[in-house]
Amino acid sequence: MQWTLVVPVKTLARAKSRLADTAHDGVRPGLALAFAQDTVAAALACPAVADVAVVTDDARAGRALAGLGARVVADEPGGGLNTALAHGAATVRASRPDAPVAALNADLPALRPGELARVLTAAAQFGRAFLPDAAGIGTTLLTAAPGRELAPVFGPDSRARHRASGAVELDLDAVDSVRQDVDTGGDLRTALALGVGPHTAAVAARLLIAGQ
């Protein structure tokens, strides 16, 4: 099964505010873009992925991610994360009605194509499925099989919310790179230890990170 991934990218100037203790205002937009670039590049390199649709209204992010081979979809509804994901999935399904789709976080800079393939292969057994994040509270990936709506409910406690929505929680070992999103300085240190992609590595090299 070949998946289309829908990746939401917030306006870079407003992204990753919780990294303020690690990266100042002048660096955070570039860091958020680097996360997205490494996430999208790894996703496009995954054998289970047919293509990636990035939902964003940020011109800089759109240009950079299109340059990697992603399709850019304007965030026309402008109604927040879940609305953007539903819009992206609907746009994909308008041209490929039978496409399996998955929402993937844009802040997975350590993402490995092989681990993503394992997760998507496991998800293909279910109508809707999700992978919890490393913290065990949120969600990094939500999938919908052909003919099923994505129905995203990302946000606070999204692990519990996706489970309550009927999506099957995937219980997989050795897929840390797909779970490790980055919201805080601690998350970034963990991602760096896993091994991040080249865009994040270049920006992170300019940061003074405690413990590194």
Order of adjacent strands in the largest pleated sheet: 3-2-1-4-6-5-7
Structural class: alpha/beta
What's the total count of β strands? 7
What portion of residues belong to β-strands?
Answer: 15-25%
Number of domains: 1
Identify the CATH architecture.
Answer: Alpha-Beta Complex
Mean pLDDT: 95
- Continuous helix count: 8
Radius of gyration: 16 Å
Question: What topology does this entry show?
Answer:
Elements: E1 3-8, H1 28-44, E2 49-55, H2 59-68, E3 71-73, H3 81-95, E4 101-104, H4 113-123, E5 128-132, E6 139-144, H5 158-164, E7 168-169, H6 176-179, H7 185-194, H8 198-204
Parallel strand pairs: 1-2, 1-4, 2-3, 5-7
Antiparallel strand pairs: 4-6, 5-6
Helix pairs in contact: 1-2, 1-8
Describe the structure.
The protein has 212 residues and is an alpha/beta fold. 38% of the residues lie in helices and 16% in strands. The chain has 8 helices and 7 strands. Helix 1 links the parallel strand 1 and strand 2. The longest helix has 17 residues, at 28-44. The termini are far apart. The model has no long low-confidence stretch (mean pLDDT 95).
